[in-house]
């Protein structure tokens, strides 16, 4: 049956926040469009309101500036000039407007009664170029002022300079507060819209996510049963799902044919090869009347026949594993005894030094047990030792070590050989994959030893990993669930 896979929350978050995912890209693009659109609307609204505010106050100041000389002329006909200036200031004054008049020598002639002269004396009028022509808004410190400075001419006589200053700071602050509120509303609308659109996009992409999860969960045993059902999906996604299902059917047929071919060929060839090998071995035992050339030829033929027989047996084992016919007889196994036995056997047949070591914290080796098939575990371990012997120098030992945790037991097979590159480490457990073709042919390898070891160990609910560096050697680690002793 197809295995159901449930992704953890952290992995789901990484998937949804992945900038390369379609959902994340669509959400970010729509969010960017919303932010740009609402920001543009808010900015345009703020600009329009500010223009209206400025226009209203500048028109008022401009009107007073144009009216001021006429009123001075009227009052000066009835009153002294200084009194006429004060009377005119009182007449045209409005809330927030400061007016004062200075003679050309800098003497103050008249001013608004509530004028805070020290605040306006700090204004650098010379730096405000162009101000005398018409009222403009300037920021002075933390205040916003509409400033005007112009010549005061009465009856053709230049009396000095007329200064007008209207404080619009409060109105400007209210405008900024209104703009901030508008920006907050736009931000809230953007967040709500992004969340809603993200959920909608996520729902629309669920069929594709189901296809991705199924493709990641399918194994060779699931090909004939795995089918994708997406009745409520959009038409384009349904067509993709149908194509996906047809591809699974073709893969299932091809995989079944491959298994049948491998199994049939292995069965058909194993018997005649066994007979041939038996005859060759019998001839070698009776080789007293044979020449050296004939004995050498028989030895070569026997060796090749033995390799072919082992290859066929390996192929049969893999075919059984693929078909689900490989069964394991699980029993309690003391790892120290098994490792010692395999090391002695491998040392005898390989003429190489095989060392056995244990963790310093393992006080009682007989307590380190696993529930495993003894024969399968020995065969997997022999394959790893054989691999270490082939790819390391003859004067270098192969080291078997036992490690453990509270729940797991580990057998490590280490060598000081040529090592394996990082690119090859992910493929060395593939069938028929050989890192060095020339060396593999010289040592008689077919690229199945590690694949069989992996199949056997995983069939006992264990795992096998490799750690290697070029020129320094490799360490293969078999990990099995530790048997709890009561």
TrEMBL record:
Entry annotated with the keyword Kinase: yes
Location(s) in or outside the cell: Membrane
Transferase listed as a keyword: yes
Enzyme Commission identifier(s): 2.7.13.3
Main location: membrane
Domain Histidine kinase: 264-484
Catalyzed reactions per annotation: ATP + protein L-histidine = ADP + protein N-phospho-L-histidine
Keywords noted in UniProt: Kinase, Membrane, Phosphoprotein, Transferase, Transmembrane, Transmembrane helix, Two-component regulatory system
Transmembrane stretches, start-end: 26-44, 182-201
One GO cellular component term: plasma membrane
InterPro entries in UniProt: HAMP_dom, HATPase_C_sf, HATPase_dom, His_kinase_dom, HisK_dim/P_dom, HisK_dim/P_sf, Sig_transdc_His_kin-like_C, TCS_sensor_his_kinase
Name used for this protein in its record: histidine kinase
Organism: Neosynechococcus sphagnicola sy1
Lineage: Bacteria, Bacillati, Cyanobacteriota, Cyanophyceae, Neosynechococcales
């Amino acid at each position: 049956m197809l295995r159901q896979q449930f992704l953890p929350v952290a992995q789901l978050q990484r998937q949804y926040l992945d900038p390369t995912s379609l959902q994340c890209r669509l959400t970010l693009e729509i969010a960017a469009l919303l932010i740009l659109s609402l920001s543009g609307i808010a900015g345009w609204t703020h600009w329009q309101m500010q223009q209206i505010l400025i226009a209203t106050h500048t028109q008022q100041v401009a009107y007073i500036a144009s009216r001021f000389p006429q009123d001075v002329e009227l009052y000066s006909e009835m009153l002294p000039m200084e009194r006429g200036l004060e009377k005119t200031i009182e007449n045209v004054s409005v809330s927030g407007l400061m007016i004062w008049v200075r003679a050309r020598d800098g003497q103050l002639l008249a001013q608004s009664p509530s004028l805070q002269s020290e605040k306006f004396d700090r204004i650098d009028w010379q730096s405000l170029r162009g101000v005398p022509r018409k009222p403009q808004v300037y920021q002075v410190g933390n205040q916003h002022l509409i400033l005007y400075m112009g010549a005061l001419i009465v009856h053709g006589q230049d009396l000095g300079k007329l200064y007008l200053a209207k404080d619009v700071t409060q109105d400007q602050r209210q405008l900024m507060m209104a703009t901030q509120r508008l920006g907050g509303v736009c931000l809230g609308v953007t967040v709500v819209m992004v969340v809603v659109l993200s959920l909608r996009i996520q729902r629309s992409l669920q069929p594709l996510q189901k296809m991705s999860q199924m493709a990641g969960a399918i194994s060779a045993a699931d090909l004939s049963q795995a089918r994708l059902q997406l009745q409520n999906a959009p038409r384009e996604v349904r067509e993709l799902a149908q194509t996906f299902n047809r591809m699974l059917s073709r893969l299932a047929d091809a995989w079944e044919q491959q298994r049948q071919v491998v199994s049939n060929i292995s069965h058909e060839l194993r018997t005649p090869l066994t007979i041939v090998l038996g005859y060759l071995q019998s001839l070698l035992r009776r080789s007293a009347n044979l020449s050296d050339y004939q004995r050498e030829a028989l030895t070569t033929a026997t060796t090749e026949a033995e390799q072919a027989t082992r290859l066929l047996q390996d192929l049969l084992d893999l075919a059984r594993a693929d078909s689900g016919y490989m069964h394991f007889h699980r029993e309690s196994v003391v790892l120290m005894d098994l490792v010692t036995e395999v090391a002695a056997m491998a040392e005898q047949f390989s003429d190489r030094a095989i060392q056995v070591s244990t963790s310093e914290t393992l006080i009682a080796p007989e307590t380190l047990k696993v529930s495993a098939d003894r024969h399968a575990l020995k065969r997997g371990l022999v394959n790893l030792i054989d691999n270490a012997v082939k790819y390391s120098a003859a004067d270098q030992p192969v080291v078997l070590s036992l490690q453990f945790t509270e729940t797991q037991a580990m057998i490590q097979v280490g060598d000081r050989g040529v090592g394996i590159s990082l690119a090859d480490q992910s493929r060395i457990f593939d069938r028929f994959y050989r890192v060095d073709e020339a060396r593999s042919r010289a040592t008689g390898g077919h690229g199945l030893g590690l694949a069989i070891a992996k199949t056997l160990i995983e069939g006992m609910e264990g795992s096998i990993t490799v750690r290697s560096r070029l020129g320094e050697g490799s360490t293969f680690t078999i990990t099995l669930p530790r048997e709890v002793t009561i």
